[in-house]
Amino acid sequence: MTTPEFADNRDNFCYRHPDRQSFVLCQRCLRTICPECQTPAAVGVICPECMAAERKNRTPAQKRAARRWGTRPAMGTARGGKPVVTYTLLLVTSIIGLLQMVPGLGGTITQQLLFAAAYLYPDLFGAPFEPWRLLTAVFAHGGFIHLALNMLALWMLGQNLEPMLGRVRFLALYLISGLGGSVAVALIAPGTPTVGASGAIFGLMAALLIIGRHLGANVTGILVILGINFVFGFFIGGIAWQAHLGGAVVGALVAFILTRTRRRDQRTAQILLLIAVVAVLIVVVAIVPPLLITSIYT
Prior knowledge:
The protein has 298 residues and is mainly alpha-helical.
């Protein structure tokens, strides 16, 4: 039941639907809007009039992006564009990372998830054959700072890429980039065990660079950040720059495929090309490192 004072105050009702009670304000004009009139924004929601004004004032790069990528939701993206996959990856990886810090438990978890070339070549090292470690290493980290930096990067990049690509494509980009990072470690430093989402993160950065360039946006800032982060890995001990390199190269390749196969009639070709990338990575990691390892240790 509402009081007469409440009913007489029009600020308690949607400005476009006076019969609908609401307590949500447009973040731009601060007018009350009901759920039907709400459009998710970067922060909060905005009303239809403010949304129209925002579309009118878009930059040339944003207009080109809308024309090239279309205004309809991408495959696998829910209406509203919430980066559900990004949030899920953040949650799962953070839980695993925090469990790694529990005394008596963390070492066991790390040992079960880390990647090392030895787990791919049991005949050479005598270790069990556990190829899934190529991906499980993406969800483990070497400490709180390592975890926090990667999760911050994932949160920032995912909010931009996932709504643009769609959930399925974004997840494929993340996992294939992570796989590329592990494969690069096996190729370049087969004796180095590694953990971390850095390969996948570098894949996202490279993808944002490729997609931004495809849309005609100014990608200089992204390129500088990518370069600085890559070079930084050479000066800090314990950082697997090989994973950064592999993730960036594979992420750029996946993004190139996605930008060239955006039409609905190209969906089958897109899926087949992504499968081909994964197949090539598997073949390369199955053939090349044993030759390198044999030459090093014999």
